[in-house]
Specification:
Elements: E1 2-6, H1 11-22, E2 26-31, H2 34-40, E3 46-49, E4 67-70, H3 83-103, E5 110-116, E6 127-128, H4 138-150, E7 156-162, E8 164-166, H5 171-181, E9 194-195, E10 197-199, H6 200-212, E11 218-222, E12 228-229, H7 230-240, H8 251-258, H9 261-265, E13 270-271, H10 274-278, H11 288-296, E14 304-312, H12 316-323, H13 328-331, E15 340-344, E16 354-361, E17 364-376, E18 380-387, E19 392-402, E20 405-415, H14 419-447
Parallel strand pairs: 1-2, 1-4, 2-3, 4-5, 5-7, 6-13, 7-11, 8-10
Antiparallel strand pairs: 9-12, 14-20, 15-16, 16-17, 17-18, 18-19, 19-20
Helix pairs in contact: 1-6, 2-14, 3-4, 7-11
Family: Belongs to the ribosome association toxin RatA family.
Organism: Bdellovibrio bacteriovorus
Protein name: Cell division inhibitor SULA
C-alpha cells in the first residue's frame, strides 16, 4: 500500500514508519523540511514538501495515496498553556487535519488518525470505553474537533485515542525519570488518579494494525489492558530503577508550575483496551511491571542510554567500509571537539585494537583511550572507553540489513563520574552534548555522496 504519514519524525512516527517498511508498504512523508526529515527518519521514504498548518498540499504523488497515518500535533507538554500555546495545540491538530483531508484523493482506502485519551476528560474511577461521552475541558474539546475532521476523509477512518506512551528514548517517561533516578520521584497529589499507558512497541503496532485490518473503524483506545493508579505507577517506576519512591508532589506545586495544564496532568483516566483486543490486536506489554523493566532495567546502575537510528540506502557491506576506518571519525565528529587520533595499536581496526584520541570539550583538552571490544564486520562493532572523562562509555555500532539498505543504530551506555552528584549537576548538560554529537553525525551521513565512497 502507498501510505502517507504526517508527524513521521516524532517519537511514535519513527516506530510506525519502521513497521510499515518491514511490512512492505511504500511510504510518503509530509515535511516542512525535507533535509531534516531525511537526517532523522529510520526508514526509506519519499518526501512530500508542505506545511499543513498553512494550507492543503499540492503534489502529483498524492493521487496515488491509498492509506494515511496522521500523527500531527504540537506537544501538549513543554510549557504552560498560554493562549498562544493553546492555539498551536488546536490548529496543529484540527486545522492541519482539515487541510490534510482536503489534499487527499477520493480513492483513498483508509485514514488512521491520532487522537488522545484526553478525549474523555477526568473520569474518576470509571472504566472508559470508546462510547463514553467526551469531556468538557480544553483538550477534550480539541480531540472532539480533531476526530470530526478526520472522519471527513474518504474510505475507512480510525481514530487512535493515544494514552501516555512509554519509550526508552524521549516522550513522557524521559521527563519522569529525572527525579526517580535521583530517588526523589513520587506520586502526583494523592496518586489515586488512574493512569492509562501504552508501551511504544504497542502503540506503533496498534496504528499499523488499524491500517491493515479492514474490521477496524471509528475510535479505538490506544492504551494497555491494565491501567494503574499514579501511585502504583510511581512505585513500579522507582522499583524498576532500583530506587525507593520519594514523597508526593503537592497539588499546589503542580498548579503553580503548570497552571491550566495541571488539570490534564492530574486527570483520572481508566481506559479500556477491550475493543482493540476484540479487533485482533495482541499486546506485547500488558502490565506496567513488564513495560517499565523492559525500558528501565539498563538504568539501574546509574547508567544513561543514548539511542540513534538512521536509514542509509546502501547495503551494510558498503556502509561498514566507511565506518571501519578510524580516521573517518574525525570527519563525522563536530569540529568544535577538535577530535584527533593520536595512535592505534594495530594498522587496521580489529578485535582488541586500542585507539588514543585528543579532543576538547567546551575548550577543555582531554585524552581518550578506547578498546574495540567486539568486531563483527559488516554488521557490528563495539568500542569501550578505557581512559577518559566518563566512568563508563560503551558504544555499540550496528549496521542492520533493512528494506534494501542499512538501518544504522548507535547505542551508547554511559555513566558520569561522582555518582548521583554528577548525574544531578551534569546529567542534562552532558546528555545535550551527546545528542549534538550524533545530530552532527546524522547530518553528515544524510549529505554524504555514498556512491563515491
Amino acid at each position: 500500500m502507498k501510505v502517507l504519514m504526517t508527524g513521521a519524525t516524532g517519537l511514535i512516527g519513527k516506530e510506525i514508519g519502521k513497521k510499515l517498511a518491514e511490512h512492505g508498504h511504500e511510504i510518503f512523508v509530509v515535511s516542512r523540511d525535507g533535509k531534516k526529515a531525511q537526517e532523522n527518519l529510520p526508514f526509506p521514504c519519499q518526501i512530500i514538501p508542505g506545511d499543513l498548518n498553512k494550507g492543503a498540499l499540492h503534489d502529483e504523488k498524492l493521487a496515488e495515496i491509498e492509506g494515511v497515518i496522521n500523527l500531527m500535533g504540537e506537544s501538549v507538554f513543554g510549557e504552560r498553556w498560554t493562549d498562544e500555546k493553546k492555539e498551536r495545540i488546536y490548529s496543529s491538530r484540527v486545522i492541519a487535519t482539515r487541510n490534510l483531508v482536503s489534499s487527499l484523493p477520493s480513492s483513498l482506502k483508509v485514514f488512521v488518525s491520532g487522537s488522545a485519551i484526553g478525549f474523555y476528560g477526568d473520569c474518576k474511577d470509571e472504566i472508559v470505553k470508546e462510547d463514553h461521552a467526551p469531556g468538557s475541558d480544553f483538550l477534550a474539546k480539541v480531540c472532539v474537533e480533531w476526530e470530526a475532521e478526520a472522519a471527513k476523509a474518504h474510505g475507512r477512518t480510525v481514530m487512535i485515542r493515544t494514552s501516555v506512551v512509554l519509550s526508552h528514548q524521549g516522550g513522557a517517561l524521559e521527563q519522569m525519570l529525572v527525579p526517580f533516578k535521583a530517588g526523589i520521584g513520587g506520586p502526583l497529589g494523592d496518586g489515586q488518579q488512574w493512569m492509562s499507558w501504552i508501551h511504544i512497541n504497542d502503540i506503533a503496532g496498534l496504528f499499523v494494525h488499524a491500517l491493515e485490518n479492514p474490521a477496524m473503524q471509528g475510535p479505538v483506545n490506544g492504551c494497555s489492558p491494565n491501567p494503574v493508579t499514579n501511585r502504583d505507577f510511581s512505585k513500579c517506576l522507582a522499583a524498576s530503577l532500583g530506587k525507593s519512591m520519594g514523597p508526593s508532589v503537592p497539588l499546589i506545586a503542580l498548579k503553580t508550575v503548570f497552571g491550566e495544564m495541571s488539570s490534564f496532568i492530574l486527570a483520572s483516566l481508566r481506559g479500556s483496551a477491550e475493543r482493540a483486543q476484540e479487533l485482533g490486536y495482541q499486546f506485547q506489554f500488558s502490565n506496567i511491571e513488564e513495560a517499565l523493566n523492559d525500558l528501565c532495567a539498563p538504568l539501574k546502575d546509574g547508567e544513561e542510554i543514548f539511542y540513534s537510528e538512521q536509514f542509509i540506502p546502501l547495503p551494510p557491506e558498503k556502509v561498514f567500509t566507511f565506518f571501519q576506518d578510524a580516521h573517518n571519525l574525525e570527519e563525522i565528529t563536530p569540529p568544535t571537539l577538535n577530535f584527533k587520533i593520536r595512535g592505534m595499536s594495530t594498522d587496521r581496526i580489529r578485535q582488541g585494537t586500542l585507539i588514543d584520541y585528543d579532543l576538547k570539550v567546551h575548550g577543555i583538552p582531554l585524552k581518550w583511550k578506547t578498546e574495540i571490544d567486539e568486531w563483527q564486520p559488516p554488521h557490528r562493532f563495539v568500542d569501550n572507553q578505557l581512559k577518559g572523562p566518563y566512568s563508563l562509555w560503551h558504544h555499540t555500532h550496528e549496521f542492520r540489513p533493512f528494506c534494501g539498505g542499512t538501518l544504522m543504530v548507535d547505542r551508547v551506555r554511559y555513566r558520569l563520574p561522582l555518582g548521583i552528584v554528577g548525574r544531578l549537576f551534569g546529567g542534562s548538560f552532558v546528555k545535550g552534548d551527546v545528542a549534538k554529537i550524533f545530530k552532527y553525525r546524522r547530518q553528515f551521513v544524510a549529505s554524504k555522496d555514498w556512491a563515491r565512497s
